[in-house]
């Protein structure tokens, strides 16, 4: 017999042995995973139950209605406050898959559903909505929503805190209604004031027109009747004076005094007639009337008045009268209140607008004086300018003095000018 001798060399396995070993390894791996899963799942469930227990321990005693809603929309927990807030027991809410669609007002549910649908990707803002309680009454709830994540950062659902805010909402609605009522009353009152203002302006314009017509009538009466009578009286005195042949007759001196008195009275009558309604305003036009007014004012006041009167088109009668009266008031105020020694008057047309500028070198008007309701002269000027559709600005100059600027559109479009 021959003996078998072991020879050294590499150990070789067949293919069947390798596959068997692989199957054994995979089986062992699967078995290990299944064993770990069986151990891990109860732990996770136990942890969830512990977390839910902790949550319930706190939420069960909160005044607000607390709800834990899972990511799929089902309710995991509803606090006992559900009965007080909605009239439904918490258990009924947990069993009802359509609990929110049933209690939320139909007009508010679509908004609530849309907000909740966006809660997987972003935070849900606080919102108010109406619900219908079990007894049929309607109340307002305010919902605060918090997104819930597990320790690994995976989204688990939402924590809903709902509070009855009916009283607050009703108070807000009442305040809104009160504000609306107040706004409506303000609009009505504003409309009444605007109507009164328009009536006042119409009356003011009518009165201004009547005053000017009455002035013109009185001016003609004074000029035609008193002027003629005084002229006739002066001529009669002159004839009476010539009837005396003795130059030393003492009655001649009395006649001379009477003639001088009549001549002075006649000049006064003519002046009053011109002041009531300057005849050159109707006969020669606005520019000549302004030039005459400036000369007369300078002679009477002793102030120096520089003038720059440009070429003007024929102004409508109401505009010419209004601007003439405004100029008169400007000159009178400067002489009475400014303490100035020099004035400048400029009248021109520019860009389809009439423009009149009056400046002085006096002490200057203050904003309080310019806006004072007791400044009747300034109020009258503003009203006259407004009636012809223009604007008026009164400014205190930096180096002292006052500037009054008037602009009036010549196209008849009121409010289309600016004096700023």
Termini separation (Å)?
Answer: 137 Å
Nearest-integer average pLDDT: 83
Total beta strands: 10
- Sheet with most strands: 5 strands, antiparallel
Could you name the CATH class of one domain?
Answer: Alpha Beta
Radius of gyration: 51 Å
CATH topology annotation of one domain: Heat Shock Protein 90
Topology as H/E string?
A: HEEHHHHEEEHHHHEHEEHHEE
How many H/I helices? Answer: 12
Helix- and strand-based class? alpha+beta
Query: What is the strand content?
Result: 15-25%
What best-fitting shape do the alpha-carbon axes yield? rod-shaped
Q: Stretches where pLDDT falls below 50 for ≥5 residues? A: 1-7
- Strand order across the largest sheet: 2-1-5-4-3
GO molecular function: ATP binding; phosphorelay sensor kinase activity; protein dimerization activity
Pfam families: HATPase_c (PF02518), HisKA_3 (PF07730), PAS_3 (PF08447)
Organism: Desulfomicrobium apsheronum
Catalytic activity: ATP + protein L-histidine = ADP + protein N-phospho-L-histidine
């Amino acid at each position: 017999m021959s003996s078998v001798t072991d020879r050294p060399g590499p150990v070789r396995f067949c293919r069947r042995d390798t596959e068997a070993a692989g199957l054994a390894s995979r089986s062992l791996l699967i078995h290990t995973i299944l064993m770990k899963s069986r151990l891990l799942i109860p732990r996770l469930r136990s942890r969830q139950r512990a977390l839910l227990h902790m949550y319930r321990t706190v939420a069960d005693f909160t005044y607000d209605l607390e709800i834990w809603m899972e990511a799929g929309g089902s309710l995991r927990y509803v606090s006992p406050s559900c009965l007080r807030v909605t009239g439904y027991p918490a258990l009924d809410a947990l069993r009802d898959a359509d609990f929110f669609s049933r209690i939320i007002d139909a007009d508010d549910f679509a908004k609530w559903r849309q907000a909740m649908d966006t809660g997987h990707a972003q935070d849900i803002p606080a919102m108010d909505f109406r619900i219908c309680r079990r007894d049929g009454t309607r109340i307002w709830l305010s919902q605060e929503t918090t997104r819930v994540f597990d320790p690994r950062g995976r989204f688990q659902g939402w924590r809903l805190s709902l509070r009855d805010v009916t009283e607050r909402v009703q108070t807000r609605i009442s305040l809104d209604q009160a504000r609306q009522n107040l706004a409506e009353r303000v609009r009505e009152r504003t409309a009444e004031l605007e109507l009164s203002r328009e009536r006042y302006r119409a009356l003011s314009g009518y009165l201004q027109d009547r005053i000017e017509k009455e002035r013109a009538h009185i001016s003609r009466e004074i000029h035609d009747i008193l002027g003629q009578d005084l002229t006739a009286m002066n001529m009669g005195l002159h004839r009476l004076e010539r009837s005396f042949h003795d130059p030393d007759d003492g009655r001649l001196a009395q006649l001379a005094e009477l003639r001088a008195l009549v001549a002075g009275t006649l000049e006064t009558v003519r002046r009053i007639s011109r002041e009531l309604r300057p005849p050159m305003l109707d006969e020669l036009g606005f520019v000549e009337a302004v030039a005459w007014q400036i000369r007369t004012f300078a002679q009477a006041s002793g102030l120096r008045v520089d003038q720059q009167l440009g070429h003007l088109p024929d102004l409508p009668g109401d505009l010419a009268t209004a601007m003439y009266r405004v100029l008169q008031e400007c000159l009178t105020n400067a002489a009475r209140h400014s303490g100035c020694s020099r004035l400048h008057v400029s009248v021109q047309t520019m860009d389809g607008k009439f423009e009149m500028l009056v400046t002085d070198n006096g002490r200057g008007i203050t904003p309080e004086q310019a806006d004072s309701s007791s400044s009747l002269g300034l109020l009258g000027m503003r009203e006259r300018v407004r009636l012809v559709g223009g604007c008026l600005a009164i400014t205190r100059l930096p180096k002292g003095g006052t500037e009054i600027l008037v602009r009036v559109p010549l196209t008849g479009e009121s409010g289309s000018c600016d004096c700023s």
